[in-house]
Amino acid sequence: MGENKRLMLAGEWYLPDDPELLADSARRTRLCAAYDAAATASAAEQHAILAELLGSVDASVRVRPPFRCDFGYNINVGAGTFVNFGAVFLDTGTITVGADVQIGPNVQLLTPAHELDAGRRRAGWERALPVTVGDNVWLGGGVIVCPGVSIGADTVVGAGAVVTGDLPPGVLAVGNPARVVRKLT
User: Which of these is catalytic: 6, 30, 114, 121?
Assistant: First the structure.
């Protein structure tokens, strides 16, 4: 494993234009295109592509194409999860999605964090902060989950919310930035 990939996986600052990472990205491009093209294929054929693309994915997971990611191998999805059309999972860091999660259309789970210093940003430096979505979470359409965020089990995030900080279990959160409006019973 090359130095930039090691730094990326460790959550350290790295340069993404590394040849090894570019090869991993080409692999992802091929597999995402195959998955999107398999929209009318059997569930078993679709799952075989997801199993090759993602770090781990249960056979009961359903992902509606199109689906986009950075690498795929940093994504782990629990049993019974449903991902609707147009999902974007930028997985330079680990993305962990629990069991029985409902993900609405056009949801973005983002792990890349870019440098605030203009010179280092121009040079391309970035790092990855993990995203965790607990069991039985519902992310409404268009939700954006920012780098380093954890969402607790049984939480509902309203459509269009931008989640910039951790959310506890069993709450309803809405808005930009997302804020907890009440506990769920």
Answer: 114
